[in-house]
Structures are given as C-alpha cells and as structure tokens.
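Recall from the previous lesson that a structure prediction takes nothing but the amino acid sequence as input. Here we apply that procedure to Family 65 glycosyl hydrolase from Actinoallomurus iriomotensis. The sequence below is the only information supplied.
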Amino acid sequence: MPPERARTTGPWCVVYQGFDPAEVRLREALCTLGNGYFATRGAAPEASAGSVHYPGTYIAGCYDRLSSWVAGRSVANEDLVNAPNWLPLTFRAENGRWFAPEGFRLLEHRQELDLRHGLLRRWLRYQDEEGRVTAVDQQRLVSMDDPHLAAMLTTIRAENWSGSLELRSGLDARVRNRGVARYRGLADRHLIVDSAGADGDLLWLTVDTATSAVRIALACRNAVHAREATGRETHGEPGWIARHVTVEMSPGEAVTVEKVAGLHTSLDSPAEPPAAAARRSAASAPCFAELRARHGRAWERLWRRARLDVGGGPAQRTVNLHMFHVLQTVSPHTAGVDAGVPARGLHGEAYRGHVFWDELFVLPFLSLRFPEVVRALLRYRRRRLPAARRAAREAGHTGAMYPWQSGSDGREETQVLHLNPRSGRWLPDNSRLQRHVGLAIAYNIWQYHQASGDLEFLCEEGAETLLEIARFWADVATYDRSRGRYDIRGVMGPDEYHDAYPDADRPGLDNNAYTNVMAAWTLWRALDVLDLLPPGRRAVLRERLALTDEELARFDDVSRRLRVVFHRDGVISQFEGYEELAELDWEGYRNKYGDIRRLDRILEAEGDTPNRYKASKQADVLMLFYLLTADELRALFARLGYRFAPRAIPETVRYYLARTSHGSTLSAVVHAWVLARSDRPASWRFFLEALDGDLHDVQGGTTSEGIHLGAMAGTLDLAQRCYTGLELRDGVLRVDPALPPDLPGLAMELEYRGHSGLRLSADNRAVRLALPLSTRPPVRVAVDDGPVTVLAAGRSVRFGLGGEDGKG
Ligand code: BGC
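The prediction returns the following tokens.
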C-alpha cells in the first residue's frame, strides 16, 4: 500500500492512511492512549516488539534499576518499566497464518486518533493467499474515567469466504525495555514473571520488577459475540497467557471481540493486593459501549477545562493534539500517584522515563488549568527533598540539590556514559552538572502560588522546598573579595553543548548567566515567601529548618551580588569565558551535513568538541527572557547592581539566535516566546516549528521513542501566556496581548485563585475577561502596567487597546 504521513481532518482528528513499516513507530508514539496513571503506545494489537513495531505500556512512577557492563565498566540505569502488554489480539482463517499487517496483501488500512473522545480507531481489509478478504474494524481506549481500565473492541468480517476463524487474545509479560536503539547494549529485562492464570474468559498474570520489586498485575476479560463458537481453549507459557476461541464464519458475517483489561500495581494502595484488584477491575467493568460512554464523558469534562481556541486552522489541530498528550501524561489521575513529569511522556523509553527540568515548560501552563495536578507534581519533588538534601550534603553543601534526572527515589539518575551513535563511542555524560534544575522547581512553586493563591501548600510544603533550594545556592556561591561578587563555579547551563572549558581537565563552567540570575531570583523569592507566611507558621518553619537571621542576611547579600558576565558590547555572556571561544563556521557545517541540530555528535565524531565554539544546542541566556518579564529582569539586574538597558534584550536575542542549532525541541518554544514582541512573524515561525516538532518528527527519529512533553506544553503556554501577555504579579492578573499576524484571536478558560472557568479572549484590538458566578472573592486584573480593575464573580470586563472599555 502506498505509505502516507499523518493527515489531519478537522481540529479533533489525526488520520493515517496506508501502512508504511518505516512510519509505524512514530505513529505508535503519537497514537498513544493514556490517562495519567498509565499509557499504551498505539501499537497494532497483533504485533510484538521487533524491527517494525514496538508495543509499550508505561505506568506513571514505575521504575526499575539494572546494571550493565558498558565500555569496560559496570553502570546502573533506572528505567521507566515497559509493563506487560494488554493488547495482544489476532486471528487466523482456517489453515491460514495469524494476521499481521506486513504478512498479507493489505487492501485498506486507516488509523484515526479521535482527540475529543480519546479513541484510537483502525479500519483495514486484507486478502490472504487463498483470496479470502477479511475486514477489521477496531477501536480502543485507555479509560480517563477509571484509570485502571483499558478496552478494545474488534469486529472481524469475512467478506467473501466461509469457514472457521480462530481468535487469540492474550496478555504478554515477555516484554523488555528495547524501545531505544542506543540503549540496546544495556540490560533490559525488568520483569520477573510471578504467575499467570485463567478462569473461563478471564485471564491474568502478575510480575515483579527485577530490583524495585513493584508487583504489576494485569487481567483481561474477553467476550466473543458470534453466531457459533466451536472451541474455547487457554494456552500459556512463561510470561504469556492467551484465550483461543474458534468461531464459524460465512460470507458477510462478522464476529465481535470485546477485551477489557485491568491494571494495578503495588504502588497503588496497600488495601488490596494488585492481583485481586486487577481481576476485580477486569471482571466487574461494564461492557465496551458503557466504558466508552463513561470515558467520553470524562474527556468532555477535561476538555471543558482545557479549552484553548487559537482560531481554527491547522494550528488548532496540533494545539489539541498537544493538549491531548499532555493530559494523557499528567491528568487529574496523576494526583493520586507519586510521579513527576516525564520528559518524553508515557509514550516511549527515551531518557528512560526520567524527570528533568522540563516541568518548567509544563507546570506554569497547568497551574492555570489543573492546579490540583500541579500541586501533586510539586509533591513529587517535595517527597524527594530528603534525597536532594543528602545530595547537597554529599557534595559538601547545605540545602537541597535536586538531581538533573530524577526517577523513583530522587537520587541522581543521569547516566554516566552516553553513546554517540554517529561515532559509536561511549562518552562521559556531565549533564548532571545542570544544577539549575532546582531553580526550575523553585520557579514552579512560585508560579503555582501566584496562580492558585494556595497558601496552605506554601506553608506546608512549597516554602520548605523553595527555601532549601535557595539555601543550596547561597552556600554554593563563593565570595570573590577582589571583585566584591559571588561566583557560581563548575556548573552547566541549559545548553548541553558546553560542559567544560576547552582542554580543561575537569568538567563545569563558571558563572553561567542563566544559573546565576535565576539563583538570585530564587534567593530573593525565598525572602518574599517567608514574608507571605503567617507569622506563627513562619516561626515554626524557620525553627524546623534552623534558618537563622545570619543565613537570611546571606540570602539577601548573595541575591544582590551574584556575578553576571557581559560581553564587551553589553550582551549577556552565557558563561565566563564564552566570549573567548571560536566562532563556528555555521554555513560550512550546514552545507556539509544539512541537519546540524545534533552538532555535538557531529563535532565529536570529527574528533572535535562544541566546547571550543560559540555554538549552543538550545536557548540558555534567552531562558531568562522566557521566564522573566522585562520589568522583572530590570528590577533583578538593578538589585544585582548592573545596568540593564531594555535594548540589551533584542541584542542578546539576536546574538544567540545566530549561534544556536536548536538541538532540543524546547529551543523553538523559547525562541517563539522571546521574539513575540520584537519580531512577531519570526515568533510565529518558531511557534509553528514547535507545533510540528512531534507530529512531523522534526528532530528525525526521536518522537518514535516518546513525545517531547515540554515542547508540547510549551506551545500551549505560548498561546496561553505569551501571546496574551498574561502575567501573574502581586496578586494581579495582567494581560497585554501581542498576537502574531497569522493568529486572529485567542480564547480560553482558566482556573485562577479558586475561580473555575475564567474566560479570557483576546485579539490585537481588545481583551475580554469574564468570571462565572460564584461565591469566590473578586479578582484583580489589569492591562500591562495599567490601573487595576476589580472583577467580581459573574461580571466581565473589556479592555480596548487604549485601556478599559467597560464592565458588564
Ligand atoms: C535537552 C534538555 C531536556 C532533555 C529532556 C535534552 O535534549 O537538552 O534541556 O531537559 O532533553 O527533554
């Protein structure tokens, strides 16, 4: 069949026509269905892992650690476990082979991802070697209603033949973590089979993860609706259990199979053993139609809170797709789980399901939509505060040092070696020096508080986490008497191309501007947070943390005297010494290699290193303009004693834009953001590039290993906060729209300080805000720095370009 890439029809549907083995893994990732508790890739149910297909099911927070022998040493890696597969379902006509799309003449193959209802549908027709034509109509869901359930409905029609059809529906625990080619040399068997069994049409199996000892139990109920069933048998082997049912078919006749799966783990609740829970879930779940109806209603409720209208057109579809995958990874069900924000969703095995700083691109957006989910995700960090304190202590510091990559227990999970597939060499991985991850956590705590007004969380958990992060930075900063400044040495910024000075014998860079400025911001905020706490709670917390006046004075001093390095022309230097690096021959490399996003791999394969060049993988200094408004930056630089003219922003943007390869999908999001006011068409181009990132696999082969959650949420936030100019400051919701020319208008419903359904619509002429009726106190709103308007529940306000137009 002629292959075809993703087509989208309407804002709620992604359609794939045809079947192309080379595209299968990308589709599997993009057609993943999930509910925040677990997710299953959109793999064909008849497929097992091989060169074409890669079925995968991942449970939020379910990790396992294995040791491998690599480049002459033992390394331990923790993986998000590929859990037993609930999908297996295939069939064969009398004397024929089991169906698989690549083994037969496919007459038709169409896959459709229905975003509104959370359904994956597939239609196909095929002809076997005896000329028998069979049609299949399949739909599946991973329930947003009951997070432990998934279901699939399959109808198989004999178009032109009669005879028996054997159906096989099973559960497969023989799966391994083999989804990422670069990790193939590493240990991948995380499941130890415990038991499997059957009771009529109910099948189950249980496994334990190899070292983390999480019990995973999977069960399924199979119901076959056919005119005549002539045989039912159960077959098993270690790690596999299947129900075979034989039915009689005649031309035009159809058989329907309903498979309902229940998935539980020992991470859920101690109240019920997972095996019993899984069996109960599968056995007592309603029929597919009812499950689908409940699931559809749950999605409807989610979409009501997730509405983000970007004026229709192709951008709308991708916005919906991104929202869909964000909500499938972190949903209200995540609130009941101890899990963080996995950088690649629950959609594949890239980065081993680890949690990086990417939540910086996810949580501020979600804080204005699903604050309860954000609170739960911040708790993932808070629970790992003891581990972060330990890490700081082991590094000789006070406070909390969060790991660059985090998994189950909060220890540092960054691999020590990584493979450059271009050179075949295993290389030291120094990315753990990206200590700035803690600053992202502090920023998110602050943003969450600004959006929700949730003082209780701040008192109980947020403040402690933020203060401990601040404490770490106050301690790490060393005072240079000769310059009267504090330095932060030996770290990495977000740009992963630079991990050391050229020819240095140890990794790390000094005075990374992003780190230093955000450390100053965090220390300053730490003081504000203490002021926000009611005196009694503040005293208790200070006592518990033994936070003395001297230490707070140090917070203040460091926040005023951290060093920021500037180039001779006033551009903020990415780190001390950056200006002395060589310029890269960008054109030469582009001509030679075409795609130079992974310039680091190219240079290393050439025996060179990006450390020698003014070349960045992604936004680094520019992250400052992403996170902080020009006013905030001006205030921060003034506090630091630096003159920072507003024109320094466009100059700094221009400087780094010319020296960035965008080797991370996060980069396009940041550039779209920082260009939003100075170059709207360029901002829009980056926005579209970020929208394309996963749908068209812009980074070439990476999406099949998992979506890029930060970039997906980042595009949503571009529409939500950047183009509307939405800013939460001092208890005031400020808007200041700057829409790119191709974006006619924006409309959304936000959750703000206990108000659900705050309607915000904007174009370049006016902004309208409307609060639904409620008993909540009024909110304070303003346009840019204009006067504050008090907006009561049940009222609306329209601001024309020049100011407030009128209240309704
Ligand atoms: C980026 C990091 C990011 C990580 C996980 C890397 O390629 O450079 O900034 O945190 O991917 O998404």
